[in-house]
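Researcher: Let's do a round of design. I'm pasting the structure tokens now; please hold your answer until I've finished.
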């Protein structure tokens, strides 16, 4: 044991030295290594130079005296235990020393070896536990967690700095207050109290209220402290602020419930909100509506301008939709180009119609993408809550209504009506069948002649698709072309049409029939396909049909709606040597001045205009269109010619060819063969 003996009196020093050795000899003390200092200055120098386990300090030294001696020594060696040696029996001084932190004191002359050894060991031990307590206190103080210690009755006896920082409560002001006054949640309080009374550890989330009235979430950890006999003496509660954690959690939940692209609620959250809205409507006996919204031409935009533009369009659409409703209404993206709206607390059905109209209006405005204006419209289905029995399938009803809106020509809205259920069943069945129709070879082409109105000579034919359905018989294209377009099946089916028509035209040539123009209809999706020119070239090569005998028909509205892309796509087709016809001309809202930008060969005048010819006054329109065609050096074909009056008129106006029931209905190739036979004879 390394001992610093600070003693100026030689006799006293020798005595203590002897007693220390005696204690060692008796086994009361480890081997002592004694350094003697005679002044405080010497002692202070010694503790700097060497290490000691304990200091024996005489308080009366040449350079200092009494309490001062102790304080100065302690300052120099704060980590060492000090046993003070007093010369006289001064109780007052002894008390002062202990209060100042001395580990023990001995009165000279009343000391024997045993007492000296015990006092030193005790001093060392005491110093050690003091250090430990100081460390614990420091940890308590610097901990980032807020900590409070209460007595067994849960009155606060101590809190740390973090506690005060987090709660705003100064320690002095809350000593004695009940612990859970700071966690003012009744239910939680009882739960925590129950586990604490049984001496168990409790941890969980709680809300901590700040002095200033704010509150924040915390993770709370409470332990009961028991004494040796197992009784609870204290509770220690530690908590940390989990605001950031909760925010992250919230963000994650947001991500799970929202569509990343548009930020709108996704299907999951939508269904939650719908359930709530319906429950509310039921309770308050108000009206609620679900709107199902599908963009009409989104797939085309996505295919032609690319996904980035498609995404941008969806974002813009989402934004516009939000603008159509009140803050409380939900607008969600269900996936793809499908959106939905929940309208709660409506006064009338008309309120829902109002929103639907607004939706159509905002979606009809051009979307400016990649510095061009893109047009997409929307079709909207509305289902009213409570109108049609079970409303658990209100979204299904809205979906069905939307489908009907689409069928009725898109860009409009329909309310759900019960009879639609049946129709949609049919639609589903039809769609399933349609997917297999191509493989099962159920499509057929009928051909309708186009003849010279003067001579009746056959100029060409138009290929028109039909679906030979096993149960329903021959289905007209108007019943399935929209479905083919929606499902994308129009691409392979359209290719089949072109190949079959070209092959047929070639077969007629091979059979010795004078070459006929073969007109084939194309839908928008096909026109916008990058691969279209390749497909056409392939088919022409494969069938050996001269390109100038193929006439590709595109409706005026398809071309006008995709004006920019159409100019390019038509240019590429034209370069292959095929002809191009503008179908159903006069029904779309084309600007006539635009017409000359398109590389077209033929203008097909819509039957809607030809019908007008019956009323002499309106024949002027047909006449004007025909003369315009002549001026632009375009071939003209009149569609839907049914009467002799029309025929006379067209003959007079020098229309190049006519097509219609008056001449012939579209017919299967075998039936047409006969007609071709006749035409050969008339030549
Ligand atoms: P479209 O290209 O304008 O074809 C003319 C339509 O008018 C045909 O109807 C034809 O049967 C009908 N029609 C002909 N003459 C008369 C007449 O005198 N009176 C009346 N009331 N109608 C007449 P269809 O065959 O039902 O075809 C309807 C539409 O379906 C076509 O209109 C065309 O847009 C589309 N279509 C037909 N086949 C195809 C195809 O293979 N591909 C694509 N994309 N569309 C096709
Ligand atoms: Mg046509
Ligand atoms: Mg037509």
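Researcher: That's everything. Go ahead.
Model: Designed sequence:
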């Amino acid at each position: 044991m390394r001992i610093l003996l600070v003693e100026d009196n030689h006799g006293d020093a020798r005595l203590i030295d002897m007693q220390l050795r005696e204690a060692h000899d008796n086994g009361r003390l480890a081997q002592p290594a004694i350094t003697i200092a005679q002044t405080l200055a010497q002692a202070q120098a010694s503790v700097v130079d060497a290490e000691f386990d304990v200091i024996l300090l005489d308080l009366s030294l040449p350079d200092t005296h009494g309490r001062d001696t102790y304080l100065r020594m302690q300052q120099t060696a704060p980590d060492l235990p000090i046993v003070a040696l007093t010369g006289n029996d001064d109780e007052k001084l002894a008390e002062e020393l202990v209060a100042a932190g001395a580990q023990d004191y001995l009165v000279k002359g009343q000391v024997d070896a045993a007492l000296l050894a015990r006092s030193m060991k005790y001093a060392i031990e005491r110093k050690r536990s003091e250090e430990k307590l100081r460390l614990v206190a420091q940890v308590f103080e610097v901990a980032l967690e807020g900590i409070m210690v209460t007595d067994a009755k849960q009155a606060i006896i101590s809190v740390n700095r973090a506690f005060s920082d987090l709660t705003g409560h100064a320690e002095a002001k809350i000593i004695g207050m009940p612990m859970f006054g700071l966690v003012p949640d009744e239910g939680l309080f009882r739960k925590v109290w129950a586990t604490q009374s049984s001496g168990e550890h409790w941890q969980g989330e709680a809300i901590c209220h700040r002095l200033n009235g704010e509150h924040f979430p915390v993770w709370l950890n409470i332990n009961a402290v028991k004494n040796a006999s197992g009784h609870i003496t204290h509770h220690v509660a530690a908590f940390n602020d989990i605001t950031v954690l909760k925010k992250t959690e919230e963000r994650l939940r947001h991500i799970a419930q929202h569509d990343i692209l548009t930020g709108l609620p996704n299907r999951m959250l939508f269904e939650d909100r719908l359930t709530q809205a319906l429950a509310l409507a039921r309770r308050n006996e108000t009206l609620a509506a679900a709107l199902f919204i599908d963009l009409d031409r989104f797939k085309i935009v996505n295919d032609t301008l690319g996904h980035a533009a498609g995404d941008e369009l969806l974002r813009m659409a989402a934004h516009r939709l939000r603008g159509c409703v009140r803050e409380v209404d939900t607008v969600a993206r269900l996936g793809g180009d499908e959106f939905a709206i929940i309208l709660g607390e409506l006064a009338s059905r008309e309120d829902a119609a109002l929103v639907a109209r607004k939706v159509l209006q905002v979606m009809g405005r051009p979307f400016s993408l990649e510095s061009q204006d893109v047009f997409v419209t929307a079709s909207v289905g509305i289902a009213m809550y409570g109108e049609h029995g079970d409303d658990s399938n209100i979204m299904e009803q809205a979906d069905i209504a939307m489908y009907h809106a689409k069928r009725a020509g898109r860009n409009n809205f329909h309310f759900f009506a019960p009879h639609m259920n049946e129709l949609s069943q049919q639609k589903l069945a039809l769609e399933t069948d349609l997917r297999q129709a191509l493989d099962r070879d159920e499509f057929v082409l009928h051909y309708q002649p186009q003849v010279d109105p003067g001579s009746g000579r056959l100029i060409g034919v138009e290929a028109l698709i039909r679906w030979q359905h096993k149960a329903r018989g021959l289905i007209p294209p108007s019943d399935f072309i929209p479905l083919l377009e929606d499902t994308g099946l129009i691409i392979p089916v359209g290719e089949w049409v072109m190949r079959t028509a070209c092959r047929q035209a070639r077969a007629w040539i091979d059979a010795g029939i004078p070459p006929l123009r073969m007109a084939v209809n194309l839908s928008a999706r096909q026109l916008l396909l990058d691969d279209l020119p390749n497909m056409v070239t392939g088919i022409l090569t494969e069938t050996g049909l001269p390109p100038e005998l193929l006439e590709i028909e595109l409706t005026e509205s398809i071309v006008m709606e995709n004006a920019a892309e159409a100019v390019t796509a038509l240019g590429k087709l034209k370069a292959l040597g095929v002809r191009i016809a503008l179908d159903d001309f006069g029904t779309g809202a084309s600007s006539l001045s635009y017409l000359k930008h398109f590389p077209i060969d033929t203008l097909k005048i819509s039957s809607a205009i030809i019908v007008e010819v019956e009323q002499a006054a309106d024949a002027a329109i047909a006449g004007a269109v025909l003369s315009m065609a002549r001026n632009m050096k375009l071939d003209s074909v009149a569609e839907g010619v049914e009467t002799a009056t029309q025929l006379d008129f067209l003959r007079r106006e020098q229309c190049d060819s006519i097509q219609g029931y008056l001449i012939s209905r579209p017919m299967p190739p075998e039936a047409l063969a006969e007609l071709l036979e006749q035409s050969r004879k008339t030549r």
